[in-house]
Amino acid sequence: MDQRLKLPPKTFDVLRYLVENAGRLVTHDELLHALWRNVHVQPEVLKSHVLAIRTALGDKTEAPRFIETQRGRGYRFVGPINCASDFPRPADDSVPLGCFAGRAEPMAGLLGLLHRAAACDPQVAFVSGEPGVGKTTLIEQFLGQTTSYPDLGVAKGRCIEGFAGAESYYPVLEALGSLCKGPNGVGAIQALVTLAPSWASQMPAQVPVEQRALLNLQAVEGAQRRMVREAASLIEALAMERPLILILEDLHWADYATIDLLSAICRRRSAARLLIIATYRLEDLKTARHPLKRVTRELSAHGYCTEVELGPLPEPAIADILKGADGKSPSAAFTRFIHERSGGNPLFMRITLDHLAGCGMVARETRGWRPLTTVDKLARETPPTLGRLIESRVEGMTDEQQLVLEAACVAGVHFDTASVAPAADMDEQSFEAICEELARRTSFIRRGEERILPNHAHVRPYAFNHAIYRQILYDRIGPARRAHLHRAIGVRLEEIYSPDQRNDLAARLAQHFAFARDWPKALDYLRSALRIANSRSARRDALVILDRAAELAAGLPDGARIPAEIEFLERRAAIQAATHDRKAGETYAKLAEMAARHRDTAAQIRGLLGLSFVLSWHDLDGSLRVLGEVLDLSDKADPNLQDYCLTTAPLGAWLESD
To answer: Which of 490, 508, 507, 500 is nearest to 204 (CA)?
Structure first.
C-alpha cells in the first residue's frame, strides 16, 4: 500500500536528486553543487539528510534497500521506482552535461578487465585521448560500477605538470600514501616497511618514528633495480589479499622512473588481483623522445596491456546528452551545431552550453536542452574559439573571483588556500569563501578533501576541473604580474614548510623562483630535486633536472655562471659514469676543457681523472696518457691538490705499477 512520508524540504531535495539519478553513484560534491548552490556548507551535512531518509524509509546502512553508501565517495539509489518522472524539478542555472553517453564500449572493456584481474589474472589498461575527451570521467563512472567487489581497494596517483622533470615516482608515492591512509592502512604500512624499505624511507609521513632510523640503516647505495623490484613486489602483495585498482593519471607528465616501473610491472607474471589503469594525452606523446611512447608501443606489441583510446563523441551520443536521461530528442540541427562547435569533445561541449546558457540562448529543462533561438543565430553569437569561450566567462565574474583564479592558476592545477591567498592579497577565509562559491556556481574548480599542513593547520585544497581552464587563465597574465605571483607563492611555501620539509616541494619551488627570475634560489631547489632523484636512483630524471639547471645558470652573472656551469657538468659526468654511459668521457673532457679555459685547476684535474676512469673501460693506454696530464698539472698545483691527486685510486695504482 502506498504511504506518504513527511520529510523536511532539503531532505526531500536530496532524496529526489538521488531518485532522479537512480543506479548511478552520486558524489558528495555533485550533491552539494546541485542542492546548496549559494550556501557554504560542509560535506558532513549530507550524512544527516541521508540518515533522515533512511529513518523514514526503514533502510539500513549495512543492508540497504534504497540508498547505498560508497564510503568517502557518495550515494547510490538502489530501490524500486514507480514514477520518478513525476517529481517537479527546480530551476537550475548550472550546466551539467547530463547522462554519461557514448562510452558503453570502453566501460564494458574496463569492467571486463576488472573481472579478469579479480580472478588472479593481472591487467593493465592505458586510457588515452585528447584533453577534455573524458578520460577521468570514464574512470569515475567505472569506479561507480564496481560495487559487486565489496573488498576492492583503490589507489590513485596523478602526475603533475613537471619542471625540469617531475619528482621521481611522484604518482606511485601518492598512490601508496593513499593506501597507507585508507581503511587497511595498518596492513599497507607493514607491507611497505617489510617488502619495500627503500620506498618506506622515502615516505616518512607514513612510517612510525621508531622505524625510520632502522630504514635509513637498511638503505644501501641503491640501484634503480632495487626500487623497481621492491615496488613491484609490494603492489603485488597488496593485490594478493584483495582486488586492487591502481590508477595513475596524466602519464604524459610522468617522470622516467615511473614509466620504467610501470613497464616492469606490466611484464611480470603473477597471480595478483591487480588492475592498473593509466591515462595520458595522445597529443603530448607526439615527440619521439617521450618515454611513454616507446613503452606503450612495446607493451602493446607483446600483449602486456590493453589500449583504450577515447575518441570524440558521435552525434547520436551528443543527442543523448542534450535530451537528458529521459527526455525528448533535440532537433538534428541543434545536435549538429553542438557537435560542430565542440568537435564531439565533452569538455568543449560543456563550455559551449555554459556560454550559450549564460547568454540566454539555450535552456536546460526537465527533459533536456533546447535552443531559445534559431540555430543560425547561435552560430553568429558563439565566440569562435575555446579560449574566447572561457575568457568570456571569466570576464563576467567579479573582480575578487578573477583575482582568486588568477593567483590559483599560477600555483598550478592543484592549489590550496594557505599557499595562494597571500598572493591574491586576501586572508585565507575570504579566499576560501570565493573558492567555495566558484566550486558550486561554475565548472572551473572543484574542492578536495581537507588536509593538515606541517604546522597542524587544516586547509582546503582545490583543483581546476581541467588543465585547459588553468592554462587559458595563466596565458592571460602579463609577464611582470606572473613573475610577482610566482615569487609570492614561492615565498609563502617557504613560510609554511621548514627547510627539512621541502624535499617533496623542490621541483615546484624551483619552478616558482625560476619564473620569478630568481635564478640563484631556483638553482638551489633544483639541486635539492637532483639530490632526491639520485637518492631514488632515478638517473634519467636527474639528467633532465641538470638540463634545466644548465639553462637557468645562463641567467647568472659571469662570476656565478662559470662555477655553476662547471658544477653541473661535473654532476652530469658523475651520473653518466655511474651508469657506465660512454658519453661520460665526452662530458669529462668538456669539463676539463672548460675548467682549463677559466683557470680552475682543481676542476680541470677532476675532469681529467674522470676521463681517465672512463677510458680505462676500453682504452688503457689512453687512460694512462690522461693520468700523465694529471701528474703534470699537480706539479703546478697547491699541496692540498697534490695530495688529492696522489691518493686518487687510478693515479695511485698507476704510480705503483710504474
So the answer is: 500
Length of the chain: 658
**Listed residue (11, 20, 3) closest to 84, CA to CA:** 20
C-beta separation of 99 from 320 below 8 A: yes
3-class SS at 634? helix
Distance between CA 118 and CA 581 in Å, rounded? Answer: 42
Q: What pLDDT is recorded for position 221? A: 45
- DSSP SS3 for 230: helix
Q: Tell me if residue 68 falls in helix, strand or coil.
A: strand
Using only the alpha carbons of the chain, give its radius of gyration: 29
What residue has cell string 582546503? 460
Cα separation, 35 vs 38, whole angstroms: 9
Asked if 380 and 361 touch (Cβ cutoff 8 Å), the reply is no
Cβ neighbours of residue 81 under 8 Å, at least 6 residues apart? 19, 22
Bridge partners for 274 per DSSP: 244
* Alpha carbon distances (Å) from 144 to 75, 77, 152: 10, 12, 12
Among 487, 467, 520, smallest CA distance to 419 is for 487
Instruction: Give the separation between CA 623 and CA 492, rounded to whole angstroms.
Output: 51
CA distance 353 to 7: 34
- Residue 193 CA to residue 260 CA, distance in Å, equals 22
Q: Are 54 and 69 in contact (CB under 8 A)?
A: no
pTM for this predicted structure: 0.72
Alpha helices in 150-268 (DSSP H): 170-181, 185-195, 197-200, 209-218, 224-241, 256-267
Residue 495 has what pLDDT?
A: 93
Asked whether the beta carbons of 506 and 525 are under 8 A apart, the reply is yes
CA distance 185 to 203: 14
Give the separation between CA 527 and CA 521, rounded to whole angstroms: 10
Strand-pairing partners, residue 416, are 461
Query: CB–CB of 259/297 below 8 Å?
Result: no
What is the enclosing helix (H) or strand (E) of 123? strand 123-129
Residue given cell 639541486 in the structure block: 527
| Per-residue model confidence as pLDDT tens digits over 51-107 | 888 888 888 887 888 888 887 778 888 887 654 333 433 333 334 455 567 888 999
- d(CA 637, CA 649) in angstroms, rounded, equals 19
Q: What pLDDT shows up at residue 227?
A: 87
SS3 content of the chain, % helix, strand, coil (to 5): 60, 10, 30
DSSP 8-state code for residue 414:
E
CA atoms within a 13 Å half-sphere pointing along the CA-CB vector of 233: 15
Strand, coil or helix: what is 25?
coil
